[in-house]
From TrEMBL:
InterPro entries linked: Glutathione-S-Trfase_C-like, Glutathione-S-Trfase_C_sf, Glutathione_S-Trfase, Glutathione_S-Trfase_N, GST_C, GST_Omega/HSP26, Thioredoxin-like_sf
GO CC, alphabetical: cytoplasm
Stored PROSITE patterns: GST_CTER, GST_NTER
PANTHER family given in the database record: GLUTATHIONE S-TRANSFERASE OMEGA (PTHR43968:SF6), PTHR43968
Residue intervals of the GST C-terminal domain: 92-208
Protein name per its UniProtKB record: RNA polymerase-associated protein
Classification via Gene3D superfamilies: 1.20.1050.10, Glutaredoxin
Classification via Pfam families: GST_C, GST_N_3
Boundaries of every GST N-terminal domain copy: 9-87
Length: 210
């Protein structure tokens, strides 16, 4: 991405090339066509300026002038408000609250499997993949009722969810066994210009049909 943005200071994003949380931010940046500087971080050799303001090395991290932010939801909402076009959250408070609650439930539900699967081996990994597949299958209607996930327009829920779905086959899940409504939604989102732009070369290897 270009690091020149007319009329504003340029934000910096510290990101990991294969991390789920970093991909969520990169997809949001690409969806909104936000020009910024993205710095790929090796946790074994992190930049000194990042450690100085983020000793726990929480990644992704956003730097805007003298402000340092981390926490995926904090960063996504800040970016959506700072760069309001296209808006990814609706104007009315009740719908915004509903969508925030949806992200909260994803964080405490399906997204919990990311670390479980990535850190598991053998039968433990197989069991985690099987449990997640069962939960996704039970949620079939959530993918079929609206063009986007539980909403008629694209929102921050989608920018959080789609990078997760991209990783399922990589985790060992039988993609064709998942609900057709989920696969149709995912394929449509995978084909979007913003999502294609958000994928790193390493992440492209997660699937072979794109």
């Amino acid at each position: 991405m270009s690091i020149i943005e007319r009329g504003r200071s340029v934000i910096t994003i510290y990101s990991e090339t294969e991390a789920f949380d970093s991909h969520r931010i990169r997809f949001l940046l690409a969806t909104k066509s936000i020009n910024c500087k993205i710095i790929s971080v090796d946790r074994n050799d992190p930049p000194e300026d990042l450690l100085a303001n983020n000793p726990e090395l929480e990644i992704p991290t956003l730097v805007d002038r003298d402000m340092h932010l981390y926490g995926v939801n904090v960063i996504t909402e800040y970016l959506d408000e700072r760069y309001p076009h296209p808006p990814l959250m609706p104007p009315d408070p009740m719908t915004r609250a509903r969508l925030r609650f949806t992200v909260y439930r994803l964080e405490n539900g399906w997204f919990q499997y990311v670390n479980k699967i990535e850190n598991a081996v053998g039968e433990a990994k197989v069991a985690a993949v099987k449990a997640l597949a069962a939960e996704l299958t039970a949620a079939e209607s959530l993918f079929s009722e609206n063009p986007y996930f539980m909403n008629s327009d694209m929102t921050l829920v989608d920018t959080n969810l789609v990078p997760f779905l991209w990783r399922l086959e990589h985790y060992g899940m039988d993609w064709e066994s998942l609900p057709k409504s989920l696969r149709n939604y995912a394929h449509r989102m995978f084909q979007s210009k913003g999502f294609k732009k958000s994928i790193t070369e390493a992440e492209r290897e997660y699937r072979f049909d794109f």
